[in-house]
Amino acid sequence: MTRPSTEANDNKVTVAYYGEGEGHPIDQAGVFLTGIAISLDVDADRDGVVEKNNPKKATWTWGPEGQGAILLVNCDRENPFIGMEDCQDDKVFSKEDLEDMSRMVLRTEGPQRLPAGYEMVLYIPLSDSDKVGVFYLQNPFFGQRYIHILGRRKLFHVVKYTGGSAELEFFVEGLRFPDETFNGLVTIHASLLEPVAEGIPPTPIFTDSVVFRIAPWIMTPNTLAPVVVFVCSVKDNYLFLKEVKNLVTKAGCKMNVCSGYMNRGDRWMQDEIEFGYIQAPHKGFPVVLDSPRDGGLKDFAVKEILGPDFGYITREPLFETVTSLDSFGNLEVSPPVTVNGKEYPLGRILIGSSFPTFAGRRMTKVVRDFLYAQQVQSPVELYSDWLTVGHVDEFVTFIPIPGKKKFRMLMASPSACYKLFRQKQREGHGEAVMFKGYSGADTKRVTINKVLSNEVMVQENQYVQRCIDWNRDILKKELGLQEKDIIDLPALFKLDKQGKALAFFPNMVNMIVLSRDLGIPKPFGPIIGGECCVEQHAADLLEPLGLVCTFVDDISSYHQQLGEVHCGTNVQRKPFAFKWWHVVP
């Protein structure tokens, strides 16, 4: 048929039967035909508009030329009176709730009513019922009601056929992020069912299908602009807060201070949560990933961050024990890189793990599986179990710089520290004193000569340098970096009773990066001519690149408790301008 019918049986095919050599038909038979156009439509070309019958709507492909619709997990919370994300219920709270969903349109054209016994249904496979939900606007004239028609416990829905040329609008929400057992693709079908006979189920004579991919959760590297800095207020960090506030004001972003009532004495903001975002052609919003560490801050993400257009996800292990490596100081992401011609336009996730040859601490499998399943920021596992706390942010970070490479990688380096100290000793400053102005536990007078003559410390730091170099090689290979892309910041470590490493003086690589403003842990290095030579050395390396160094005193409030500035802060950043669906994983 070339076009839809205006009424039932308005087309006819006649078949005439002839005898041999006869001019007139012996008999005639007729078949009455009804033409109905049915098209289930989505935004398959990813321009934010639902187009008509895109030929590629039932497949999903990656890349700039790719096709296929996109779905957001509706993991924010529009309704302030419920304690969970919108995707946990089967209701639409407000117009804003609909904006988080993707539109799907069922277009039909045909006679005023379907022939007797025929019906149209929308349905989803059983395996997708916990991954997608569909709402339909009922009765748009008197007080709108959005009813839940597909999803949990609802596998099919009979669609009311309205006749003539009609468009029925549906709203689709994602319920689950891609994971080890779920590749992120969901399918919705529309079928026309034909009756056979009384008491026999109808059968589909036509089916149209659409495929959605659920948008992955994407992390934001230090090279993206900061929006809000999160930090805790605890009983002994008043001065630290003041310094961070000044830095944030200088960088021109906002600051969110989590009160003692909310954090219950837990100051490690970096470890409890990680900020990222999700994005579709029609909408995007930030999403916080809550770590299974669950310290004093464990309710912070749900109570203070989850809200309208701010989503929430968590992954909790069922059987594994949670270790320090599950804290998100151990979850970082590189800036965009190209490795042997393969592009990673959204960077690569970095997680710390144990040395492959002996059983050590690893990030729990549920979190690792979740990160790998997002596909667009292919993770790299580093070796961080040699540290007492065991986080990657203790030995590596990234800073933005103008220019083609757009960033440098900074690494903690004992050998850079020994080199600097030996040079100062040769210049006659061997008696320069460290930790000046800090009246902490180690009040023994520490000088350059003492550090250089301490054989045990020299050996321990040789070991640490080897652990860092092992990671340096992995990072160079997996991020496609050369030596000129790396800057070594002086650092010293000492080993604890278990043979794991701790920073000897505040570890500068554990800094907060706010565009060109760096908040660096104040190292309390040897004072020469009224200046700390370690600070001076770091500033000489970083300031020529157009960065501004602010040294923040965190020694008693963070360093003494085995963390630094980065561990105690967290930054929500702007999303990438690059669209994740243009990635080719």
Question: Which descriptors apply to this entry?
Answer:
elongated; alpha+beta; histone arginine deiminase activity; five-stranded antiparallel β-sheet; five-stranded mixed β-sheet; 10 helices; single chain; 585 residues; 34 strands; calcium ion binding; PAD; cytoplasm
Please tell me how large the radius of gyration is: 31 Å
Quickly give the structural class: alpha+beta
> Averaged pLDDT, please?
93
SS strand fraction: 25-35%
| Largest beta sheet: strand ordering | 3-5-10-7-8
Task: List unreliable stretches of 5+ residues.
Answer: none
Intertermini distance: 42 Å
Query: What is the general shape?
Result: elongated
Largest sheet: 5 strands, antiparallel
In percent, how helical is the residue content?
Answer: 10-25%
Oligomeric state of shown chains: single chain
Structure, explained:
This protein is of the alpha+beta class. The chain is 16% helix and 32% strand. A five-stranded antiparallel beta sheet has the order 3-5-10-7-8, with no helix packed on it. Strands 4-12-11-6-9 form a five-stranded mixed beta sheet, with no helix packed on it. A four-stranded mixed beta sheet has the order 13-16-17-18. A hairpin with a 6-residue loop joins strand 7 (132-138) and strand 8. It starts with 10 loop residues before the first strand and ends in a 12-residue tail after the last strand. The relative contact order is 0.12. The mean pLDDT is 93.
